[in-house]
Amino acid sequence: MSRAARSGWFIAGLALLVALCAASVSLGVRDVSFGDIVAALSGQADTVGEAAVVKRLPRTVLAILVGAALALSGAALQAITRNPLADPGILGISAGSSFFVVLGITLFQLSRPYSVMGVAIAGAAVAAVLVYLIGSAGRGGATPLKLALSGAAMSAALVSLTSAAILPRVDAAQSFQSWQVGGVGGGTWDRIATVAPVLAVGALICFVCARGMNSLALGDDLAVGLGEHVGRTRALAGVGAVVLCGAATAIAGPIGFVGLIIPHLCRLLFGPDHRWLLPFSALAGASLLVAADVVGRVVARPDEIQVGIITAIIGAPVFIWIVRRQRVREL
């Protein structure tokens, strides 16, 4: 695909995201008019409709940030592992982040946002390293199937440990359980201001490594022959992926499958060049999470379905399709 065609598709994607954002602030328990949206954006909150728009704006922005972060994290993990099944949720990285957050809050009474994000990123890093070490053991090294199985086992163990840590705290169990499902309903401007700089750092690291990710796709030997420092590129891209996943999990809970679905879709449509794949993944990931949030509010109103459930419903069939497409005997 030519540069002009990709640029055109990117502009179309931005237009779609804008349309989804308009739907996000206008649809919910109470639908609002275009006039309410314009008035709310100008700073008014006098009517019920305008107040509803003001309340929905931060959750829409949070959905954009979290969706983009998870998609970038998944794209980076797939690049550095050359694993089509790599995803923060499938590899147990989100579960590690969640477990450390729960431990930090229940055992050490952490409450400051940056402290919570710090332990979330640390948990994501520990889980990523453990899964890679386990998946690399034995003959054949870190194959996609071994990494997926290791991640599934790690995720199951960490989810059980997280539940065990939550159960004694009856007073906080309900809020923890809601957070564990994954959602953006608790978005506020203060929380966004806290997490946005951390996500920006993680995204910047991934974008800086885009050219190196292209070299990794050719294989380690050829990448070294082209002058690429394979170990450094993998480490930097891994740090970016872990920071993005950890910060996103800390603010919105563990939301699965975004990092699996979006990079695959963008790679099929726009090619494997990470200089384009990463921006497209961020844009598509943001669009998916905003759309999932809208669907969750519309189909169950006056209640709502958390975005983590919507993405799981979408992602599970896609995961099965990817496994079949890659032919399990070759994984």
Explain what the structure shows.
It is a single chain. The protein is mostly helical. Helix content is 77%, strand content 0%. The chain has helices at residues 3-26, 34-41, 48-81, 93-108, 113-136, 144-166, 170-181, 189-208, 210-216, 220-225, 230-252, 258-270, 274-298, 307-326. The two termini are 29 Å apart. The mean pLDDT is 87. This is Iron ABC transporter permease. It is found in: Cell membrane. It comes from Leucobacter tardus. One of its GO terms (molecular function) is transmembrane transporter activity.
Summarize the topology:
Layout: H1 3-26, H2 34-41, H3 48-81, H4 93-108, H5 113-136, H6 144-166, H7 170-181, H8 189-208, H9 210-216, H10 220-225, H11 230-252, H12 258-270, H13 274-298, H14 307-326
Brief overview:
By secondary structure, the chain is mainly α. 77% of the residues lie in helices and 0% in strands.
Instruction: Tell me the CATH topology.
Output: ABC transporter involved in vitamin B12 uptake, BtuC
Structural class: mainly alpha
Low-confidence stretches: none
How many structural domains?
1
Mean pLDDT: 87
Shape: globular
The first-level CATH class is given as Mainly Alpha
Number of strands: 0
The rounded Rg comes to 20 Å
Let me know the CATH homologous superfamily: ABC transporter involved in vitamin B12 uptake, BtuC
Order of helices and strands: HHHHHHHHHHHHHH
* CATH architecture heading: Orthogonal Bundle
The count of helical stretches stands at 14
- Share of residues in helices: over 70%
Task: State the major sheet.
Answer: none
Which strand-content bin applies to the residues? under 5%
User: N- to C-terminal separation?
Assistant: 29 Å
Membrane topology: Multi-pass membrane protein
Family: Belongs to the binding-protein-dependent transport system permease family. FecCD subfamily.
Keywords: Cell membrane, Membrane, Transmembrane, Transmembrane helix, Transport
Organism: Leucobacter tardus
